[in-house]
Every structure is written in C-alpha cells, then in structure tokens.
Amino acid sequence: MLMTIGGVPAVFQGIAAIAKDDMIVKTRNCSFAFSSTGWGWIYLILGIVIFLAGIALAGIALFSGAAWARFLGVLLAGLSVIADFTWLPYYPVWSIVVIAVDVAIIWALCTGPSRSNW
C-alpha cells in the first residue's frame, strides 16, 4: 500500500516541475545539476508506474506470494530512492522523507513473510 500512496506525490512533483520551472528552488553549488523539466517528466512517469504497480502488486501478486512481485517492488522503490536522491538540491526535507518511505518499502518487501512459508 505504501507504493500506491508513494506514487501519488511523485506524480504531483512531476506535474509541478513540468508546469512551472520557476516554482522549483535550486540550491547553489550542488554537485549535480539537472533540468527540472526533465526531472519532472521522469518523476511523472515513475510516479504513475509506481502507483499502478502498487495497485497490481498489492492486490494480486504479493498476497499470492509471487517472488517476481517482490523483485519488481524492490526495483521500483530503488529507482524512486535514486530519483529522490537527485531531487535533494531542490527539496531536501521532502526528499529525505520519501527516501525513508522507500527504504521502508524495500525493507517490508525483503523481510515480509511469503505465502510459501505459511
């Protein structure tokens, strides 16, 4: 369920970055610099994929114990961690919160019981 909930803010971040570049505040002297419009598109696409995968994974595959669903969930949450790490110069507090949620998702998917163990 966290993946579903986590995908929605990413979609809104992507829309905000695409719609209005000057809304994004960038710190000086950051070690990497990217176009906020480009990251907006990446966030929009990643947010939609995470949201849809969260619905499909939570509703169908994870509860049946499919290993591929765990792998896909960990992969998508890992991509979200990378995207939020690169978003740190723009919104550091928000990025750290979302990274913490993504780490919780990865932890839950890696340590949760599977149906085969029940």
Automatic annotation (TrEMBL):
Transmembrane segments: 41-63, 68-87, 93-110
Record domain DUF7144: where: 1-112
UniProt keywords, alphabetically: Membrane, Transmembrane, Transmembrane helix
Highest taxon above the source species: Bacteria
InterPro entries: DUF7144
Name listed for the protein in its UniProt record: DUF7144 domain-containing protein
Lineage: Bacteria, Bacillati, Actinomycetota, Actinomycetes, Kitasatosporales
